[in-house]
Amino acid sequence: MTRKLLTRRSALTGLIGGGSGLLLSGCERIVQIPGALSMLESAEQLSQHGQRLVLRQTTPLAREYPRSEISKNFKANGTTRPQSEDYARLAMTQFADYRLKVDGLVARPLELSLAQIRELPSRTQITRHDCVEGWSAIGEWTGVPLSTLLQMAGLGNGTRYIVFHCADNLAGQGLYYESIDLVDAYHPQTIMAYAMNGQTLPIPHGAPLRLRVERQLGYKMAKYVMRIEAVESFAAMGRGRGGFWEDQGYEWYAGI
Ligand SMILES: Nc1nc2c(c(=O)[nH]1)N[C@H]1C(S)=C(S)[C@@H](COP(=O)(O)O)O[C@H]1N2
Ligand SMILES: [Mo]
User: Fold this and answer.
1) Mean pLDDT score across all residues of the chain
2) For the CA of 211, the nearest atom of ligand 1
3) pLDDT tens digit string along 193-208?
4) Model-level pTM?
5) Radius of gyration for the alpha carbons in the chain, expressed in angstroms and rounded
6) Closest residue by CA, ligand 1 atom 9
């Protein structure tokens, strides 16, 4: 093993170990995340990944704010209510029949109700949301760490990306979707949020469940998430660029 790889490996271990304590604590345990290891190996070719690992180690968390700084008006952007009949039916009963699917390259595919998701350990964070359209807002988000769901499902070998499939068809361009890599997926501030500012997540902001991936721009934060899929490649989805806005020409990497 090269020294470079070792450095990156300890960077990632530090990152994951520095989180909520739910996950890993020692160097040797990194091998228990098969996808993380293959991601590290591919980082040998992808210098952007390597740079991000180093950056993340020095500034691992996005800034968090005091309650007093929560924005009075947090704009709702893009879809503010998915138009499908399926979604309308779910919304009618406050999403009692909603089931989040977690599947793809996993050992144990999951189907979780909102009640089951709310019973899992949660994280609350007050962060600033930055949209490429040029506005920002500070909000408080509560949800389950994505890492918890991925651990429950058991990521398979070869997983490189986590894809979020949404309920809305934006501008007739197809269903909204997004993807992130495993560094973001296991980041402690990456959560599937079901509450905003202490209230049940409102429909305009992505009810019943939306992604918060705090070191990325707004368009990565998939709202109305129905299904989380572990994949090796997103080339066969949409126009193959890894997300709804990426397919329109936005950068896949929207990190700050
Ligand atoms: N499913 C879905 N997710 C989405 C969007 C969308 O239109 N549909 N818009 C994105 C964009 S561009 C931004 S800035 C944020 C807006 O989140 P908000 O409505 O809570 O402000 O959601 C992102 N996630
Ligand atoms: Mo945005």
Assistant:
1) 85
2) 24
3) 999 999 999 999 999 9
4) 0.81
5) 17
6) 78
